[in-house]
């Protein structure tokens, strides 16, 4: 870290805020070992490491016993597995730090000073409650890329966080750090859009968002991630997009109409993807909330006319009417 004498680094850390590094785990140690190793080598030492374990075997506990975190490690085993994201919330609830840094059990800090940079950013920007960094994404086939955000995208997210409904330009939860506030929790009804909902909720509530351009976290696209079960899953996608869209309409009434129209277009795309033509199709996916008249009109048009070309024009018509 520039400008810091490493002989006094421990003293320096103790004068800085305490950060809770939260790792919710479940039956996986192959990549977790790398995660723990990345925590162990961090130059920033004023942290606690919290692991809440949903595992049905002692593998995670046995692995943590191989590490010495100088008393910073707090391990909790859930006798009844909580699932995701309940286990994420449980991990956060055990945190006593000023800041919370979530890391999924198959992601890791990119460099030894990553945690230092995360903490320093919030220290230098006291008006920001939630910040994220660039993520280095490593694919199973060896290819990799950086998940970045442009200044223009960041400005839009700050003023209209609902734009994240169209696409997640922030990245996964491992990319974020936030101040420890009791209201900051993940919606337990969601899996696929759970991070997007979390970001929209908190940016809307606290009116702040920070971005660190350094790739401080590495995300590994491993087989068996929770998100794998959500990809192209009609039940999950239809329910979660309708559920979150309803929240945008009724919980965030100040959202710019042009952004809501884009969100509506995204929802109609999901309907088209899964050939949703009846209200019963939506109900069958578990959504029991309000279905607006415009959706009913869209479904009527697709059910009665039914071609892809008409579907395209009917989507444009619905958005123009909204």
SSE blueprint:
Blueprint: H1 9-14, E1 19-25, H2 32-40, E2 47-53, H3 59-64, E3 73-77, H4 86-93, E4 99-102, E5 107-109, H5 114-124, E6 130-139, E7 144-147, H6 151-159, E8 176-179, H7 194-206, E9 210-221, H8 234-251, H9 257-273, H10 279-283, H11 293-304, H12 308-321
Parallel strand pairs: 1-2, 1-4, 2-3, 6-9
Antiparallel strand pairs: 4-8, 5-9, 6-7, 6-8
Helix pairs in contact: 8-9, 9-12, 11-12
Number of domains: 2
Overall spatial form: globular
The H-level CATH homologous superfamily of the largest domain, spelled out, is Spore Coat Polysaccharide Biosynthesis Protein SpsA, Chain A
Reported for the largest beta sheet, the result is: 9 strands, mixed
CATH class of the largest domain equals Alpha Beta
The appropriate CATH architecture of the largest domain is Alpha-Beta Complex
Rg to the nearest angstrom? 21 Å
Number of discrete helical segments: 12
Task: Explain what this protein looks like in three dimensions.
The protein has 322 residues and is α/β, with parallel strands linked by helices. It has 2 domains: 6-228, Spore Coat Polysaccharide Biosynthesis Protein SpsA, Chain A; 232-321, no CATH class. It is 40% helix and 17% strand. It is built from 12 helices and 9 strands. It has helices at residues 9-14, 32-40, 59-64, 86-93, 114-124, 151-159, 194-206, 234-251, 257-273, 279-283, 293-304, 308-321; strands at 19-25, 47-53, 73-77, 99-102, 107-109, 130-139, 144-147, 176-179, 210-221. Strands 1, 2, 3, 4, 5, 6, 7, 8 and 9 form a 9-stranded mixed beta sheet that branches. α8 (234-251) runs antiparallel to α9 (257-273).
